[in-house]
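ok so I'm stuck.
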Amino acid sequence: MTVFLRIYFVLGVVMALVFGSQALACEALVAGPKGRVVSVTDGDTVVLDNDMAVRLIGIQAPKLPLGRQGYPTWPLAEEAKIALEDLALGQDVVLRYGSQRMDRHGRQLAHMFIGENEIWAQEAMLAQGLARVYSFYDNRFCLTELLKSEGQARADRVGIWDGEAFYTVRRADQPAILLERIDSYELVEGRIINAARAGSRIYLNFGSNWRTDFTVIIERKGLRLFEAAGIDPLQLENALVRVRGWVESRDGPRIEITHPEQIELLARL
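replied:
not stuck anymore, here's the structure
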């Protein structure tokens, strides 16, 4: 763990609870179908004995190519698949839904609970350091608990957090390195030096040059969710935060934020 992460880990977990509290608690999940896991596709996808493919919503495990030509195997992807097999293969499971229940590939988007003790698959994978929290604007359930599990694994330096450069939490004040991670899902930490509204957007700037430095953008649709949660992104100016999302290149590296849980407040400076 870097010094940067050691200093702010405890604050990060506490403030994740503040932002994550806007998501409904796991008890509010809606009961779904039951089945038995007959195959594991990768570290976040399984197939049940009713031919139902299930994508474990709320996490992203290291990816395998799965027949995609030229697609690289992410570090620890095989280990993540094996870990999920150890947890779930041949086990009876129950699915519970948050919001969106199916993706465009026909997979169920569900939280999966395994066996008589109902081991929560998502939390177990995060605790082993074999997944990151990965949420969507239309599926924001259980994020408080998931962020806490991810943070503990990061503090314990297990799995992908044990010095694996591919998953390192990036620094917002190093835009050149972020530009090497275009089209990658990243966690980025830094201080917001300026927060400004321009039309229907809010820009959170992490450097003095908006044409080259790292920026977070929140569009109108995302701002509605911030407003509903009672959070004003403009109040984050001078705050130290951790953001997560897909890195794009437009006037320097940037991440678009679609819902509040993508930003964890670490400290106010």
